[in-house]
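We treat protein structure as text, and this decision shapes the records that our systems exchange. Below, we set out a record of this kind in full and without editing:

***
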Amino acid sequence: MTLFPRWAYQVEGEQTRDYQLGELFAFGKQHSPQKLAISDGKRSYTFSQLEEMATSLAHWLSAKGVKAATCVPVLAEKSAIMPVIAAACWKIGAVYVPLDGQLPEARIRKLLARLASPVVLAVSLPALDNTTNWLSGDALEAVCSQPVTTENSYDVYQHASDDTAYIIFTSGSTGEPKGVEISVNSLKTYFCAHNQWLQFTPDSRVFSLSPFHFDVSIEDTLLPLSLGAFVWQFASVHAGAIMRGIIIREKITHLIAVSTLLSLITENGNQIQAENFPALEMVMTGAEVCDPKIINVWKQNLPSVRLINAYGPTETTIVCCCYEIAQPDAQRTISWPIGVPLAHVSYLLVDENQQIQQGTDITGELCIGGELVMKGYLGQPQETQKVIFEHQGVRYYRTGDICLRQADGNILYVGRRDDEVKIAGRRIHLGEIRQKCLATNGAQRVAIRKVQLEGKDHIAMVITGEESGELANIESALAAELPRYMLPTLWGWAEEVNLSANGKTDEKLLLDQLVEAANQQPSRYFIRRQGGSFTPMNRGDA
């Protein structure tokens, strides 16, 4: 008898069981072994193939010294082979650690040093120097293609609930990335709770847009695969027409897209019509505030499609709150609510004095509690203590997001209390960029924030110093340390600063002046001489 995973949606008259994480493809293999499970346009695998490949890779990992609780860094790319790697890690109790394969080499080296793993896996990136046990490209494919025999088969690892399942690195205020540790219990609880909203079934066809170093990839790839659903891994150019074409051709039922990508798919809205998407059942967005006009287009033109606004910091296991948009609202000028907590999630709103706010329409910092809260930051207990606290026996995470509780019980996102921002769904702590900049020669003070130019989000930075010719060196130094999406795209150099009433640099004034200059004379680089205003400059000008 085929037993559904316990996170299956509305399985009437069927028994379920608690599959181990290493059995990620077990239900699909038992239910429909020759069914196409995943495709990225170049590679396609059935559930039977996924299971055999994961078993072969797990055997190789064990032979190279990987054991339970060993961190396995994976330099990830959008590829159909990535779920094989995650399942192989979990088969032997190892910790799956997907990293951005496009990171600068210096940042990759630092992260690998912190993880101290006996192996490194990569989809295609060749080994750095003479790194031992680096498996990538054709060699990775060859290992995964080894036939499974009775000699190299073994029982799947039985995880304890508090074992670490995966680690996702995020931007950190200290100048170094933070490794968010998520437990097995948190992940399984999330699978159960969120699938009540997602409603994945074996008949679902999911369009996966998220990069694998982003935790939403677990939501839009690993969760549906565990339920026997089909996943299309989008690894092409992010162009609206291309993405819409695949949604139509592949008869996609579930689309999960951060707000930036949903906007690209929408374009002018003319193509968002029911006749173009007859199979579509659900659209979920989130990770950043979505323009109400975009959501209105989808709900107005596809009224039968469930449209969900989701919210969740990495520290609370992918998604912890959801809100279903029932009707379009052409008059709406603010974002839709982030909704209500998932099952097994609680929340508090606290003021600046950490007092709990009980009423409605009163703002406070959102604190998420319950089984989805992370174990902590890898090797950074002091950073963990800053954001985790206990209330009435429940662990809570301070999100830094200012929210309010509406009269109808839904939570509304208002803004941030610190300098953490999101651009194209990626979480960026401006403090990390500031710290890296101040560590370079020539930068005495740094002002930085997210700004809008021509309707698009950018990171703008003003550096104060005596030698503006250092700008080229500073930009190169940041590019060697930070991923591309964290690099400022609007640069200003000021020979003197304006001071606020408390004697600190008036960062708001400097950045306002920089943005004003950029709107008047489009350029990437500006300089403000003593007593003057910002004017365009060449990057290497002194």
About this structure: The mean pLDDT is 90. The first helix runs from residue 26 to 31. The radius of gyration is 24 Å. The first strand starts at residue 4 and ends at 5.
